[in-house]
Design brief:
Layout lengths: L25 H87 L1 H9 L2 E6 L2 E11 L2 E6 L9 E6 L2 E11 L4 E7 L21 E6 L7 E10 L4 E3 L11 E4 L4 E8 L5 E5 L11
Antiparallel strand pairs: 1-2, 1-4, 2-3, 3-6, 4-5, 5-6, 7-8, 7-10, 8-9, 9-12, 10-11, 11-12
């Protein structure tokens, strides 16, 4: 016996086939994916731009710091140079002050020492008398038991024997050398009559303009008179000084602050304008130096 299976139709309200699930549209899905990719790229680009900007700002800040450090280093070097210069100037100033103080002390000592210096020189200065006049002379050196006195040639001109006097003492003197060109003469006296002012030929003064000098002689017969002055001008031929001098001073020694004879007074040209022969010119004829 056969069984009849009822057929199912679409019009059957009871039995219907299950509907097929709807497939989502592929284009819409693809569009969303593309949008996400674009968004990701935009974000990545933004992040990259931000990163680049950050590193650029950081590099710029680093460059500025380096520039500031270089500027600070340069200023520091300049400051060290300025400090070094100030230190050098301070040292130079201290040196100049020390030299000035030393010069002032030396000047004070020289001025304070003029009185004892004058007394020492006076012991070796004499009055030279001849038959028709007189002048000055001084004990230059001693040799073989004799004292050699230097004077001006015009003081002993025409004489071979002279009278050498000091206060109440007197000695006979013999003119042994004459230098007419330099106006110098040498007189020998027996015995050691006074301390020599020029025993060592090399120990003589070398005056310069402005140096203070002492002049000792017998102006108008006033034995042992002392005047002071400065060197107005000095050369190898003559020394000009403003130390006061008068007739009778010729032949007297011109002495520097250290007690060295610098020249021999020989002439004058007016008030405080007097001239001496530099002592080194005595080495030409008067003495073997």
């Amino acid at each position: 016996m056969s069984v009849e299976v009822p057929s199912v139709t679409d019009d059957d309200p009871v039995r219907r086939p299950f509907p097929q699930p709807e497939q989502p549209p592929r284009r819409k899905r693809r569009g969303r994916i593309l949008g996400l990719i674009v968004l990701a790229l935009v974000l990545a680009a933004a992040l990259a731009a931000a990163g680049l900007a950050y590193f650029d700002v950081r590099e710029q800040a680093s460059d500025e710091r380096a520039e500031r450090r270089a500027a600070v280093s340069e200023l520091d070097g300049e400051l060290r140079r300025v400090r070094s210069r100030l230190s050098s100037l301070s040292a130079q100033n201290d040196g100049l002050l020390a030299r000035l103080e030393a010069a002032e002390r030396s000047l004070r000592q020289e001025r304070a020492g003029l009185a004892p210096l004058a007394r020492r020189v006076q012991r070796s200065v004499f009055t030279i008398r001849v038959f028709d006049g007189e002048g000055s002379g001084w004990a230059a050196y001693t040799e073989d038991g004799s004292t050699y006195v230097v004077t001006a040639e015009h003081v002993v001109e025409g004489s071979t024997a002279v009278d050498v006097r000091q206060r109440d003492r007197s000695w006979d003197g013999e003119v042994v050398r004459i230098d007419e060109e330099n106006d110098l003469a040498l007189v020998r006296v027996d015995g050691l009559i006074a301390p020599a002012l020029w025993q060592d030929p090399e120990n003589r003064g070398h005056p310069r303009a402005g140096d203070e000098l002492l002049l000792v002689g017998s102006p108008y017969g006033l034995e042992g008179s002392v005047t002071t002055g400065v060197v107005s001008r000095a050369s190898d031929e003559e020394i000009q000084t403003d130390a006061a001098a008068n007739p009778g001073n010729s032949g007297g020694p011109l002495v520097d602050g250290r007690g060295r004879v610098a020249g021999v007074l020989v002439s004058g040209a007016g008030e405080n304008v007097n001239f001496a022969v530099p002592l080194q010119r005595a080495c030409i004829v008067i003495r073997d130096c």
